[in-house]
Amino acid sequence: MLTAIDLFCGAGGLSYGFELAGFRIGAAVDTDPVAAATYRRQNPETPFFMEDVRRLKGKGLLKAAGGRCDLIIGGPSCQGFSTHGKRDPNDPRNYLFREFVRLVREIRPAWVVMENVKGLLTYGRGRYRDEIHGSFRRAGYRIESRVLRAVDYGVPQFRERLFFVATRTDLTISFPAPTHCPPEMAPLLGLTPYVTVQEALGDLRSIGAEGESDVYDSPARNDFQRYVRRHARKVLTLHRARRVSDLAMSIIRRVPQGKGLRSIPPAELPERFRRMRTISNGQLRRDCTTLYYRLSLERPAYTITCYFTNVSSGPFVHPTENRALTPREAARLQSFPDCYEFVDKQVQRQIGNAVPPLLARAVALEVARKFKDTAGRHEPARMRLA
After folding, report:
1. Could you list the residue range(s) of the whole structural domain that residue 121 is in?
2. pTM for the structure as a whole
3. Residue 69 pairs with which residues in a beta bridge?
4. Judging by beta carbons within 10 Å of its beta carbon (0-12, 13-18, 19+), is residue 28 exposed, middle or buried?
5. What is the pLDDT of residues 26-78, one digit of tens each?
6. What tens digit of pLDDT does each residue of 331-354 get?
7. Can you name the residues that pair with 180 across neighbouring β-strands?
8. Distance CA 246, CA 253 (A)
9. Does residue 25 sit within a domain?
10. SS3 state at 72
């Protein structure tokens, strides 16, 4: 079995996707205690290092992984690049990818997969992207990068992530071909239609504006529901609604599916929101389009962020109920199965920061094919164990 080491693993979305593709996670690293608790609960047999990566040595990680490493994966912290954050050029986390490259240099796996936010691609006119490419090349790796859309690989969400794939083999670097597409294109392309919000959440019970439920509303009705309910426990967790403020309720109850704040006539909006609708020349602003946005049952969701329980922060209003998404609904839209045990603390951050497992699986399957093509010409990183 191929062995990977996951750096900056978070709650484990990337690891889980690679496990779905047949990889063994030999060791994992993260400094977030809450995400670490979730990772350990989900992966009790995996050696875990809750340490600053700058203090770790490749030899120690390799030993913990059983003396073998075929692949290093991970997503260095990206807050300095994210369009959902402050985009601070002085954020020290912007440079943690250098520690990622250092450990790759020390361990020398055959392949590397590093993911990050799309904003890194153009931030500083591509400065960080170019530095990452240059760092891997100096370490003896060929590298390519590409933005992948989660929706193209069976995730019910229009989320984009930047993937770097590097290798010290002589094989061609490639990225997974889409398996899903818009429904109107599916017959022509021979692909599966995008997974919609209805398909992802349709078997969950209605809970109202402040309710919760620990049971399903119906049996699984489609392939995605069968996937997320595979190995599910009898009790459904995290399906609870957060109370919506009176102001927010007065807005979202007027918003139809697939629409946001700007769908409401100005005369019906509170004064503070009327000012948001136009700019000095009287034209409608082009931002604010997803504020108080109600998801459509017939389409995939927009990007799930750490703020999915706040209807005012983005496209997180439930399609048919006057509330935000529940943590379980958001986890499903990220393609986490219902059996995935998140520690019930700061769960929004854990889910919102995660790599969608089905997107990770698609990348993992593509890399796994490369190992088959290698046919023993490139040995994995190994060490002598005492």
Report:
1. 3-181+353-382
2. 0.91
3. 381
4. buried
5. 999 999 999 999 999 999 999 999 999 999 999 999 999 999 999 999 999 75
6. 999 999 999 999 999 999 999 999
7. 192
8. 11
9. yes
10. strand
The DSSP annotation for 188-243 comes to HHT-EEPPPHHHHHTTBPP-TTT-B-SSBSS---SHHHHHHTTT--SS--S-BPPP
| C-alpha count within 13 angstroms, C-beta hemisphere, residue 128 | 25
Can you give the C-alpha Rg of the chain in angstroms? 22
- CA 48 to chain centroid, in Å, comes to 21
385 has a pLDDT exceeding 50: no
Q: Phi, psi at residue 152, to the nearest 5°?
A: -75, -5
Residue 281 token pair: 């020349």
> What's the CA gap between 112 and 190, in Å, rounded?
31
Locus of tokens 């993937």: 163
Question: DSSP per residue over 5-50, as a string?
Answer: EEES-TTSHHHHHHHHTT-EEEEEE---HHHHHHHHHH-TTS-EE-
Q: Report d(CA 364, CA 73) in Å as an integer.
A: 10
Dihedral pair phi/psi, residue 364, rounded to 5°:
-65, -40
Angle between helix axes 97-107 and 127-138 (nearest 10 degrees) is: 10
Residue type, 259: K
* Among 199, 160, 194, 213, residue whose Cα is nearest residue 323: 213
197, HSE (Cβ side, Cα atoms, 13 Å): 23
Catalytic residues: 78
Please name the residue ranges forming H helices in the chain: 13-20, 33-42, 58-64, 97-107, 127-138, 186-189, 197-201, 223-228, 246-252, 271-274, 327-333, 347-352, 357-374
Residue 106, in any domain of the structure = yes
- Where residue 225 falls (left for φ over 0; alpha for ψ -120 to 50; beta otherwise) is alpha
Distance of CA 273 to the CA centre of its chain: 31
Output the six-digit token pair for 385.
């164990």
- On whether residue 69 sits in a domain, the answer given is yes
Count of domains for the chain: 1
Contact 301, 197 (CB under 8 A): yes
Please indicate, yes or no, if residue 277 is contained in any of the structural domains. no
- 286-303 b/e (C-beta count within 10 Å ≥ 16 → b): eeeebbbbbbbbebbbbb
CATH number at residue 139: 3.40.50.150
